[in-house]
Structure to design on (196 residues):
């Protein structure tokens, strides 16, 4: 049964490709606005499910009756109980990086799996704790100048230049990139998927 990744994220695609897992891409955009009082776990699971269902509907519309497992995911960074978004400006990136500097934060990734044509659905989340080294103001400015923080949850990329600020992680490294690979692989196998 083929896999369909409901994400345009090059990082998620890279994780699957490097693991030798074949898939198609069918990105789905949803409103990522945080609801009042929504907890991080609920937030990422809801968005993962919405992305998964939206992509699955596109697939059904294009090829009714087709068999596939659709994978949707959403990642967010949480520090001191505050959900950080994806910075779009240097000021937002600076604020996020200053909040992460010298502290431990959590990375939550919600994952949705939807099997077609049955439409059976399951969701789960993975949490990784990440400890950041203290960052000097000049380091933050240089990092922002690289443009890497923009569009990344929490304003950094562990697999890129941002990795030099990560002192320690507790949990899945790939989860910080946006897709908890080992957990996803296990969940896919229990969902009836087999590698071809």
């Amino acid at each position: 049964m083929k896999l369909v990744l409901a994400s345009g994220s090059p990082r998620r695609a890279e994780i699957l490709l490097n693991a030798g897992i074949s898939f198609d891409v069918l990105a789905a955009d949803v409103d990522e606005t945080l609801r009042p009082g929504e907890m991080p776990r609920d937030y990422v699971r809801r968005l993962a499910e919405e992305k998964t269902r939206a992509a699955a509907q596109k697939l059904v519309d294009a090829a009714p009756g087709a068999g596939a497992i659709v994978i949707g995911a959403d990642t967010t960074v949480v520090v001191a109980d505050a959900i950080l978004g994806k910075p779009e400006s240097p000021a937002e990136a600076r604020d996020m990086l200053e909040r992460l500097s010298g502290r431990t934060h959590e990375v939550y990734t919600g994952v949705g799996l939807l099997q077609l044509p049955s439409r059976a659905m399951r969701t789960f989340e993975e949490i990784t704790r990440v400890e950041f080294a203290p960052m000097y103001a000049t380091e933050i400015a240089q990092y922002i100048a690289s443009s890497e923080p923009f569009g990344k949850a929490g304003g950094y990329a562990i697999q890129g230049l941002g990795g030099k600020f990560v002192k320690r992680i507790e949990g899945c490294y790939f989860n910080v990139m946006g897709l908890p690979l080992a957990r996803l692989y296990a969940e896919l196998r229990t969902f009836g998927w087999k590698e071809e």
The first helix runs from residue 10 to 18. The two ends are 8 Å apart (CA to CA). Residues 17 and 90 are 32 Å apart (CA to CA). The beta strands are 2-5, 24-25, 68-79, 82-84, 104-116, 120-132, 166-170.
